[in-house]
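Ticket #4471: structure export looks truncated?
Reporter: QA, pipeline team
Priority: medium

Steps to reproduce: submit the single chain below to the structure queue and open the exported record.
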Amino acid sequence: MKSLNYVAIKLTLSLITGLIFGFQLHVNILYILVISILLFGLLLYCLIKGRKTSLLFTSTSYLIICAIGYISVYIHNPKNAPNFFENIASYNRKNIFTIKINSTLKSSDYHLRFQGEVISVNKAKSSGSLILNIEKNNIKGTILPDDLIVTDIAPELVHTSLNPHQFDYRKYLDKKFIYHQLYLKEGKFLIVNQEPNTIIGLASHIRSKIQASLNREQFNPEVLAIINALLLGDKRLISNEMYQNYVDAGSIHILAISGLHIGILLLMIHLMLSPLLRYKNGAPIKLVISLVILWIYAVVAGLTPSVIRAVTMFSFVAYALNLKRPTNTYNVIAISIFFLLLFHPSFLYDVGFQLSYVAVLFIIWLQPMISKLYSPKWKITKYLWSLFTVSLAAQIGVAPLGLYYFHQFPGLFFLSNLVIIPFLGIIIGVSLLIMILSTINILPGFLITFYNYLIVQMNDFVQWISQKEMFIFRDVSFNKYTLLFSYLMIICLVFMMKNFHLKRKAASFGSALLLFTIILVISVNKLDTKRFIIFHKSRQTLIAEQQEYLITYTNDINSVKNIITNYSTAEYIDSVLTLPLKKEYRFKRELIVVIDSSGAYNLDTSKAIILLTQSPKIHLKRLIDSIHPVKIIADGSNYKSFVKRWKATCKKEKLPFHYTGEQGAYIIE
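Actual output as written to the record:
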């Protein structure tokens, strides 16, 4: 691929390598700094000796960028700061934490959720972000970015996942440099409302005013939710049902401000400002105005990570358009990635970041090749064919990532995108007009009626597509190895399509064979896996036995369905059998005896593993003396006060105790 010869791409790949090392390895920063100084010395030597084109100069340059990536991760990690709030908090007395709200997150059933920064501990300046959860019935008024929360409740570490193959929220937040969370109840905190004093606070203030003006208009609630998502990047008003409809239809990207929206906005700006090109210095003036409008919109949209990366990327695209150098498209994309990751290393593991850039790269690379396969004669067919090829190229690019992260593939994505995307420019344009007119209180009624009709029709169409269940492939097993070799196979196949050379045919066949072999090996290994699992689930008991298929034991299948689905998908298990809970289980040489709320157990049982469920009222010391168990296990169905008492008894009796709420699922292999 000739574009890989571009320096910007190589530098970006070097930076990404350094970032990965920064996240995965924990090397003393002094060693990295010493190595960096030595590398700079070597680079300076090459410059003095006039060896700019030598292999030594090139490799040294890339190693320096790699080191910069590592250092960037170190600098952005608040744990490495001396004033990190966990480092300066006192452990022998109450601490007063002052938290500044940075952003509002989607609420849960019982809590309002925010991302905040601890700006002081006991009036001493501090740093470090956390997730703040405040009970809904304790909030009077609104909490906006830049407001302060004062509390003496200490933040706690984010809990890791307790079940195998469960979404690990702690790992997810670690990549964002967030390690703590805080739950606040009534009377345990003080809200200090203040005027916005940061760009993010100002952006939130502007958005609140826009949302207030929109709320005064006679919009359908679902339509209002779409406006907030399309223009302001606020998806909190979208119902779970509507959101799932867009996911199933393969059109969820429409509800998030992404490269697609910013690209359409840039095209509108480009067309509106095109008369400036008639004048001297019109091109640079047009560029400056375009960039100003894009970043003003970014502020209005809340400066969320998705908005920042999309506007950054298209700022570089606008610059490239101004220079009229389309051949440098790959370099432009690489430079935008470089600067985004340099100043926001956490974007590297952001799913939206990965999907956005992979989609753009595949559109640039693959779409021209696909479009050459057919040459329509009519303008309308050319337009539809162009839309289809763009959508297909993007979907080919993001499909492996989508399967890896979400284990789902919408088979009718091309149909929903073919219908919606041609009108998306109109929808966004009308949305912007509505936002402006509503803010200055001159929005005409016919425009509200028209927009209501337009969005309702779009939602109905998406719902119709989402109901075609036979075209939605759910719970697809896909791991990091199949992800890697899927991309390898796609790249080889595209090269083969471009030029039917024997070596490329062999590479394509080899990658396909390798992918098939990996899937086959995984499948065979799963057949040999024998495992007994006691899962953790609050207020429920879930036991599973893995053989060629999965046998699950539970009395409430609906409440544990997600746990079972996640596990069976990750383990490549196609068949799941659900049975009621039993009193005894035998697995290999182990006997597992269940004691439930009845408290009944067999005195003849000995040397067994005891599973306590549903808070049985038993005298544990007497049970231990009677049947001499080898281990006591308590699952998530028990009262915590009971678990605490059992744990103390087992410690006194020197008997192993396992609580799934602390140590995670109990697994016998």
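Status: closed, not a bug. The export was complete when the record was re-opened. Leaving a note from the reviewer for reference: Residues 145 and 201 are 5 Å apart (CA to CA).
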